[in-house]
């Protein structure tokens, strides 16, 4: 499945830190039912076998709703789970190598923090860029701050779609208006919400305001 730019609108990234009264699958299903347009499975501490098992089940869940499914960092798990794509950062496997392994049909997302990284990612086969951290985030301790003007500069210098990530919530999302991003990528404002369904609904509505 190649990337449909519209699928980037409300891009939810999982985090089992927020698993409590619901399982990760129940949380993701609620997010999808209420507006999440793309799911990335991000597992930082799971062993390979359990990561793969979970990725297969998550891919089935996403595809039941026609939502694309992307695996964070682990190309092998993405391939073996028949995910729609993989997202890698600057410290992960090089984008060019990932593209060689996954072929032309799978989606490749790459993190970028400046125009140089963004252009290199595009040249090396990225389908979209994740740019952040735009706002302060407690979720990723080693995030690099990226200003709104740097985000705009990146968007203006590449042809592929860009999603903003990092600390985005219902109170600050509208600051992304006029940045020309294709969507917002969010963890805690969705999965850390008291009511994942209503948070997703509201964020989708606001994301549409940003992207229109
Ligand atoms: C959509 C999106 N954008 C950026 C990231 C961050 O990726 P990375 O830099 O590899 O950091 P980790 O997620 O691995 O901590 C992302 N995951 N998704
Ligand atoms: C996974 C991730 N990547 C970032 C980057 O800057 O590349 S910030 C981030 C965490 C996003 O979580 P939250 O929505 O809870 O802030």
TrEMBL record:
Look up the EC number in the record and give it.
2.5.1.3
An example of a GO molecular function for this protein is:
thiamine-phosphate diphosphorylase activity
Binding locations of 4-amino-2-methyl-5-(diphosphooxymethyl)pyrimidine: 40-44, 72, 111, 140
> Which positions are annotated as binding 2-[(2R,5Z)-2-carboxy-4-methylthiazol-5(2H)-ylidene]ethyl phosphate?
137-139, 167, 187-188
UniProt KW keywords: Magnesium, Metal-binding, Thiamine biosynthesis, Transferase
Per its record, the protein catalyses:
4-methyl-5-(2-phosphooxyethyl)-thiazole + 4-amino-2-methyl-5-(diphosphooxymethyl)pyrimidine + H(+) = thiamine phosphate + diphosphate; 2-(2-carboxy-4-methylthiazol-5-yl)ethyl phosphate + 4-amino-2-methyl-5-(diphosphooxymethyl)pyrimidine + 2 H(+) = thiamine phosphate + CO2 + diphosphate; 2-[(2R,5Z)-2-carboxy-4-methylthiazol-5(2H)-ylidene]ethyl phosphate + 4-amino-2-methyl-5-(diphosphooxymethyl)pyrimidine + 2 H(+) = thiamine phosphate + CO2 + diphosphate
Function as written in the Swiss-Prot or TrEMBL entry: Condenses 4-methyl-5-(beta-hydroxyethyl)thiazole monophosphate (THZ-P) and 2-methyl-4-amino-5-hydroxymethyl pyrimidine pyrophosphate (HMP-PP) to form thiamine monophosphate (TMP).
Q: Give the NCBIfam families listed for this entry.
A: thiE
* Record's protein name: Thiamine-phosphate synthase
Lineage start = Bacteria, Bacillati, Bacillota, Bacilli, Lactobacillales
